[in-house]
């Protein structure tokens, strides 16, 4: 596969056709019913959250995978006003810049794990005590009232998971188009990605086996599995993520590269090969 703009564009066009097919299939085919265990859990969660406001709210565990994120973490952690119903877990993949110390100074619990986002996410989920898991990137800030939005979103009938709308912390019309495309895809195809802060109940997450052990595309694959058992909803508020990925290669090349990775994965390309291409393009690992 060529790594030129022309090569990326050719693969991106294939991905677009696949996305259109997926959308058509979603419109034409009835949703796959929830498994018995997940359906029961979804109903019980909705009742617990909505029928008696005097009941204690389910606790939320925020899992943040990090590798050399000492500069980004303070801003992200300062937006999280943790209380007794919210815990913050930073999963360090062997940072050399004091990431763990910064996280602890900000009141987060630090867990050490083997580098690799899927492994770090699963390690954080295993250490979490909350009934709801929120997976947050180390360069993404949560909106005010995120905990209320999460609980309200998960009370919706048939919803097994959710994420936030995406806003990118950077100027320019190009980034606004990226936001528009991401939010349109998320809502209509129910396919949010990791930078939108995915959340779901811990029980559902563990029943599905957690994130697949892949070098990349772990969030994409989790979403595909979740869509088979229920609805993935989008909360009305937005997270704000850093524009550093788009600054690295430029908006067009970054967008085409992302679409090429998705297309390659759907076409059966080995994820390890995709990860090698991804690194050659100069993309950050996390």
List the helices and strands and how they pair.
Elements: H1 5-28, H2 36-50, E1 60-66, H3 73-78, E2 86-92, H4 99-105, E3 109-112, H5 117-127, E4 132-135, E5 140-141, H6 146-154, E6 159-169, H7 173-189, E7 198-201, H8 202-207, H9 218-227, E8 231-242, H10 244-249, H11 251-266, H12 271-280
Parallel strand pairs: 1-2, 1-4, 2-3, 6-8
Antiparallel strand pairs: 4-7, 5-8, 6-7
Helix pairs in contact: 1-11
List keywords for this structure.
286 residues, alpha/beta, Spore Coat Polysaccharide Biosynthesis Protein SpsA, Chain A, 12 helices, 48% helix
CATH-defined architecture: Alpha-Beta Complex
SS class: alpha/beta
Question: Terminal Cα separation, in Å?
Answer: 24 Å
* CATH homology group: Spore Coat Polysaccharide Biosynthesis Protein SpsA, Chain A
Pattern of helices and strands:
HHEHEHEHEEHEHEHHEHHH
The biggest beta sheet reads:
8 strands, mixed
Shape: globular
- Rounded to an integer in angstroms, the radius of gyration calculated over CA atoms is 18 Å
* Oligomeric assembly: single chain
């Amino acid at each position: 596969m060529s790594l030129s703009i022309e090569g990326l564009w050719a693969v991106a066009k294939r991905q677009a056709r696949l996305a259109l097919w997926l959308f058509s299939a979603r419109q034409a085919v009835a949703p796959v019913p929830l498994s018995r265990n997940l359906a029961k859990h979804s109903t019980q969660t909705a009742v617990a959250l909505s029928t008696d406001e005097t009941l204690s709210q389910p606790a939320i565990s925020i899992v943040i995978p990090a590798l050399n994120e000492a500069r980004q973490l303070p801003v992200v952690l300062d937006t999280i006003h943790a209380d007794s119903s919210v815990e913050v877990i930073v999963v360090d993949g062997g940072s050399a810049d004091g990431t763990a110390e910064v996280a602890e100074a900000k009141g987060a619990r630090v867990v050490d794990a083997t580098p690799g986002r899927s492994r770090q996410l699963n390690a954080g989920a295993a250490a979490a005590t909350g009934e709801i898991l929120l997976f947050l990137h180390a360069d993404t800030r949560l909106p005010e009232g995120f905990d209320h939005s999460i609980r309200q979103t998960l009370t919706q009938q048939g919803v097994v998971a959710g994420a936030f709308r995406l806003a990118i912390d950077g100027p320019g019309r190009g980034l606004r188009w990226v936001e528009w495309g991401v939010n349109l895809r998320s809502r209509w195809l129910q396919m949010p990605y990791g930078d939108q802060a995915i959340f779901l109940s811990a029980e559902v997450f563990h029943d599905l086996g957690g994130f697949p052990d892949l070098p990349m595309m772990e969030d994409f694959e989790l979403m595909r599995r979740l869509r088979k058992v229920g609805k993935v909803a989008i909360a009305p508020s937005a997270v704000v993520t850093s524009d550093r990925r788009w600054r690295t290669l430029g908006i067009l090349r970054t967008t085409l590269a992302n679409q090429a990775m998705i297309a390659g994965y759907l076409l059966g390309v080995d994820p390890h090969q995709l990860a090698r291409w991804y690194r050659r393009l100069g993309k950050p690992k996390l």
